[in-house]
Amino acid sequence: GFTDHFALGNEEWNPWDEEEKNELAAQQRYEANLKTIKYARSHLEQTSLRVQIWGKAAIGLYLWQHIFGGHLEPADVTAQWREGRQRAGKTYFSFLTGPSVVPGYFSVEAEHVVLVLNGREPAKVAYATQWLHYAQTLMETRKIQHVAVVLLGNEQCNNAWIQPYLKRSGGFVNLLFVTYDCAFVNEEDIFQWPLGVATYRNFPVVEPSWSMLHDPRSYLCNFLGTVYKNSSRETLINILKQDGLDKLCWIAAREQWQPQETNASFKNYQDALLQSDLTLCPVGINTECYRIYEACSYGSLPIIEDVMTPGDCGNSSVYHSAPLQLLKTMGAPFIFIKNWKELPAILEKEKKMSLQEKIQRRKKLLEWYRNFKAWMRQKFINTLENSFLPSDKG
């Protein structure tokens, strides 16, 4: 209350003489606040959006479970049909996923739909377009009003196939959230979306624990992954071997990519993240990889090879800091390097760091990652509400 009085420039004000007046003012303020809340509540109920999310790509689980912190019933990941519900902002979200969610065989319970699709390769695109055509039919028959798409994009950013479906090109899709540094992101109706963790390998939502923050870790760094011939990953392994640094790091290289982890190999990978202070993230087909987000989940700082990969990603005026525009814009506290020759010096510095310094760094990383997810959630909700809700022309 003090600031209210000082703001009036009333230097004579004596808080003791005015006690009764203050009580009255406080009472009035309280009643006014109560009115505001009541009005906001009724207004909220009037303008409530109902949004149904159809999760037809694994990236939908990152959206729902990791970014939204939502739950799914049944909990069994192999279930044919899973659903969840959550209220956020002015919006009531329901989420459906699983092999049984097929066009025409489930009830469309909202006028606003978010379609989560996989556009990584031609076969996936063919499947995704079936869903788009289904949504288009629902639009034409007035069953739904708005459609947004969350798209797992192609790793070379060849996403031109989706453009004719966008409203700006005469289509019906209001908003697009797409992974990787896709050149047609404009922050108006097309937004960059994080790749997230490999939910298709059932990477879990990790709750930070006391020991994850405070325990000493056995390894300076880790890299578990496929080493392609003549790639920078090969260079990385050679540099580690030259200086004997591979003895201080958890390195498990394989020559061929395996889409499905065994339980043992997955446990191994999680242990490596938990037992290393740093996680090495060499480029694959795209600079952005699941490993970055998975390392954040366990408080292991990503060292990222910050180079553009071949393809159509980042070729636009927006992407002056590509690759990883989204993470950089959000101030990710990672170590970015242009060449793995910089690694030995980083590891030398790492050896001299005290546990206390490492604990502070882990706290900062975990805090940043939590805020990043919260920010993405808020941005997603605000974008939908601004686009889908009738604007109040007061």
UniProtKB/TrEMBL annotation:
* Top-level lineage group: Eukaryota
Domain RXYLT1 C-terminal, residue spans: 200-389
Recorded GO molecular functions are:
ribitol beta-1,4-xylosyltransferase activity
BP-aspect Gene Ontology terms: protein O-linked glycosylation via mannose
Pfam families with a match to the protein in the record: RXYLT1_C, RXYLT1_N
Its keywords, alphabetically, are:
Transferase
Q: Which InterPro entries does its entry note?
A: RXYLT1-like (IPR055286), RXYLT1_C (IPR057538), RXYLT1_N (IPR057539)
Q: Which GO terms describe its cellular component?
A: Golgi apparatus
Domain RXYLT1 N-terminal: start-end pairs: 51-194
Q: Where does the secretion signal sit in this chain?
A: none
What PANTHER family does the database record attribute to this sequence? Answer: RIBITOL-5-PHOSPHATE XYLOSYLTRANSFERASE 1 (PTHR15576)
Q: What is this protein called?
A: RXLT1 xylosyltransferase
Organism of origin is Hylia prasina (green hylia)
